[in-house]
């Protein structure tokens, strides 16, 4: 089958809504396993009371995610995006299954050995995340804005869905023997099945959608070498090699040039996630005191964050509500740091209603600003440059997360280990 005419889109870009649904599901799969682990922190806190799992697991996850994404972003221009993303989703499936196997093999017993096993699985989640999140954001950066927005909404939806499932399983098993463990086992059984679905969707359904084939063909015509395997999976032959004159026209900006031109967007991503992860989930899980909701309190806060984050990622779909001014974005992102003293004083003197409201605002602003930055930054570049820029912004997102989970330990000053 020959390549489609890349100078104009197919009528109505067929398959757009199907692609949005698939992107949403793939976004879910990118963080579903990790969010499952975060959402059953009450089980791990009970199982490993001396090891601060809410903080340690995140701190283990991040260096592996960050180191992997830096390596992958450096070699992005020559990488096979299809193999990269498939490897990530398959690794998510295998490691989700391993959490289940480890719990069953140890009969739900704690101890240092089991905790080290959980930490190793957390590190594998980080490696998988770097493959998938950077690969998918880069791939979708040269496609329609609605597709990357759907993927980013799916990332947030994974948190909202896992929180809802956790509340349901906690209510269902609360009065039964070993209820926390039963809920955790159910969680990772569901997670394993869902990750297998994502492998199938990415491998067989996504590359055959007309809108996806159109944008990948367009990127290939602009010099992208990362999409050839995906084009072949969609039944499209690789475009012929360009002659010397065309090669000069197709020359892309290097990563350093792209970064210098978009350093404000990179800082935006860093600052958004440094603040968010300095509060969520460690502070919300361990430092908000005792309230009338009891053991439900941390779960409710995490659920409110996740739901608000999801809602925030849909707000930019309303065009006049989307913030695209670069200076305006930086001002709003810097103003979010006022949430640090707000959370501190609310934890000490406020009631649970104020804490729930603050947590909701943290999630809402996180989701909204993430979509605004990642959909605005790639505009005006060629396909290969948009792919590279998407990868670079995910690097700064993960650097921000790593900084945030490190800063989160500052809340423990004066409280001891």
Automatic annotation (TrEMBL):
Domain of life (superkingdom): Eukaryota
InterPro entries recorded: Eqnu_transpt, MFS_trans_sf
Coiled-coil annotated spans: none
TM regions (residue ranges): 17-34, 54-74, 86-105, 111-130, 151-173, 185-206, 265-284, 296-316, 328-347, 353-377, 389-412
Membrane topology annotation: Multi-pass membrane protein
Main location: membrane
Annotated Gene Ontology cellular component terms: plasma membrane
Entry similarity comment: Belongs to the SLC29A/ENT transporter (TC 2.A.57) family.
Name of the protein this chain belongs to: Major facilitator superfamily protein
Native source species: Prunus dulcis (Almond)
């Amino acid at each position: 089958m020959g390549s489609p005419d890349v100078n104009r889109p197919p009528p109505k870009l067929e398959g757009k809504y199907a692609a949005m649904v698939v992107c949403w599901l793939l976004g879910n799969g990118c963080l579903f396993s990790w969010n499952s682990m975060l959402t059953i922190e009450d089980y791990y806190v009970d199982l490993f009371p001396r090891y601060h799992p809410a903080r340690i697991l995140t701190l283990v996850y991040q260096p592996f995610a960050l180191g992997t994404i830096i390596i992958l972003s450096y070699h992005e221009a020559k990488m096979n995006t299809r193999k990269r993303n498939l490897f990530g989703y398959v690794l998510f499936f295998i490691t989700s299954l391993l959490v289940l196997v480890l719990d069953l093999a140890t009969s739900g017993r704690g101890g240092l050995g089991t905790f080290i096993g959980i930490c190793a699985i957390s590190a594998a989640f980080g490696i998988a995340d770097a493959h998938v999140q950077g690969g998918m954001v880069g791939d979708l950066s040269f496609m329609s804005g609605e597709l990357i927005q759907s993927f980013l909404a799916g990332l947030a939806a994974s948190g909202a869905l896992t929180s809802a499932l956790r509340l349901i399983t906690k209510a269902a098993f609360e009065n039964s023997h070993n209820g926390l463990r039963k809920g955790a086992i159910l969680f990772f059984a569901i997670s394993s099945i869902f990750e297998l679905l994502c492998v199938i969707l990415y491998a067989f359904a996504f590359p055959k959608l007309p809108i996806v084939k159109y944008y990948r063909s367009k990127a290939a015509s602009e010099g992208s070498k990362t999409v050839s395997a995906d084009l072949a999976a969609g039944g499209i032959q690789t475009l012929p090699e360009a002659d010397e004159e065309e090669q000069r026209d197709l020359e892309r900006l290097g990563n350093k040039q792209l970064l210098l031109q978009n350093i404000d967007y990179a800082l935006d991503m860093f600052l958004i996630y440094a603040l968010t992860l300095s509060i969520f989930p460690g502070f919300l899980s361990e430092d908000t005191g005792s309230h009338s909701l009891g053991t439900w309190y941390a779960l409710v806060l995490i659920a409110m964050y996740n739901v608000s984050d999801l809602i925030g990622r849909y707000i930019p779909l309303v065009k006049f509500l989307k913030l695209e001014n670069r200076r305006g974005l930086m001002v709003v992102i810097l103003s979010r740091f006022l949430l640090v003293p707000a959370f501190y004083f609310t934890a000490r003197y406020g009631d649970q209603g104020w804490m729930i409201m603050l947590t909701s605002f943290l999630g809402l602003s996180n989701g909204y600003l993430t979509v605004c930055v990642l959909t605005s930054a790639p505009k005006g570049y060629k396909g290969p440059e948009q792919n590279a820029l998407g990868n670079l912004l995910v690097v700064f997102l993960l650097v921000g997360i790593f900084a945030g989970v490190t800063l989160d330990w500052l809340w423990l000053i004066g409280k001891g280990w």
